[in-house]
């Protein structure tokens, strides 16, 4: 199984499109590349709020319509996908971080 298939499978098992996980992973990869190009350490930490803000502004995600198509309608949806990726070992969380960090950060239904 390829890395891409593994990422997609995690999202699908969590009840989301496989592309939802790909969009989130691309944001992490973009952040790592930005730091590497700037000659800074490649260890990256992004908080729940930073990730949601970047997802809402990201050209990778494209638009709010794309987020809707991916069924990432709320920050809680993003948190479920992120922590599914963490449980699978594809992303790492710092001590004390949890899915609850994503509660109430955005809701496309109210925007």
Describe the 3D structure.
With 111 residues, the protein is mostly helical. The protein has one domain (3-93). It is 54% helix and 0% strand. The protein contains five helices and no strands. It has helices at residues 3-13, 18-37, 48-57, 64-69, 75-87. The longest helix is centred in the first third of the chain and has 20 residues, at 18-37. It is globular.
For this entry, give a set of tags.
111 residues, globular
Radius of gyration: 13 Å
From the spread of the alpha carbons, the general shape counts as globular
What amount of the residues lies in strands?
under 5%
Average the pLDDT over all residues and give the rounded result.
82
- The total of beta strands comes to 0
| Helical residues, percent | 40-55%
The CA-CA distance between the termini, in Å, is: 38 Å
Helix/strand class: mainly alpha
> Can you tell me the number of structural domains?
1
> What are the secondary-structure elements, in order, as H or E?
HHHHH
Main sheet attributes: strand count, strand direction, barrel closure = none
Low-confidence stretches: none
Short précis:
With about 110 residues, this protein is mostly helical.
């Amino acid at each position: 199984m390829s890395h891409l298939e593994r990422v997609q499978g995690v999202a699908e098992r969590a009840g989301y499109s496989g592309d939802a996980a790909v969009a989130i992973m691309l944001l992490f990869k973009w952040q790592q590349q930005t730091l590497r190009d700037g000659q800074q350490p490649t260890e990256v930490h992004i908080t729940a709020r930073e990730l949601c803000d970047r997802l809402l502004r990201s050209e990778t995600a494209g638009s709010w319509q794309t987020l809707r198509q991916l069924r990432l309608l709320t920050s809680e949806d993003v948190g479920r996908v992120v922590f599914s990726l963490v449980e699978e070992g594809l992303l790492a969380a710092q001590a004390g971080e949890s899915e609850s960090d994503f509660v109430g950060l955005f809701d496309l239904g109210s925007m």
